[in-house]
Amino acid sequence: MGDVVEIIRARARWWADPDPYKVEGQDLQDIFRDAGCKLIPSDHDAEYSAKHLGSNCKLGSGNPVAWCGVFATSVLRFAGLDVYWDFAKYGSKGGGMVTKALGVGYLSAKTHLDDLSPGDVAVIPDNTHHFIVMDTFSDDTLLCIEGNTAGQMIRSTIRPLIEPNPKKRIQGFYHLYR
Q: Which domain holds residue 47?
């Protein structure tokens, strides 16, 4: 499984270079397509989102959708994992990661932070935000790469493992490849 983790980390780093990386319309379409989404932003919606929205992506006439989980799913798929993002799952929460091998979304998720390791996709309650864990450090911090951050960026961030703010505290994570 070490190879899968290294592929996940390398692909996430590729997207975040230079750090931060401002996505363009074509990038948004590629990320949605690479995540196996049935809904892909049109040329117009992708360009509009990249240029005029601070985050999220327009998909037709509905409200713009968050693409942080879509980004994370596209990275996992690049590493060969049998997952895709489905906007129909979980209703108004913006969809969820689905895998044929393990069931739907959080069914295979973990909540014990002791199990969190590089290559995992963590989720916090603040806008149901998803990010890829790149490294864990002895001072209880994480190096992460996140899509759909302010300014339509993909960037690396340092996050505390134990967050005092409940909205920013890791509530679970996808641990699909072990």
A: 2-174
Residue 163 makes CB contacts below 8 A (sequence gap 6+) with 124, 169, 170
Rounded distance between C-alpha atoms, residue 51 and residue 114, angstroms: 40
Question: Whose structure tokens read 């005029």?
Answer: 52
Cβ burial 77-93 (10 Å sphere, 16+ → b, else e) = bbbebebbbbbeeeeee
How many domains are there within the chain? 1
pLDDT 10s digits, 25-57? 999 999 999 999 999 999 999 999 999 999 999
Which tokens sit at 81? 């994992």
Q: What predicted TM-score, i.e. pTM, was given to this entire model?
A: 0.91
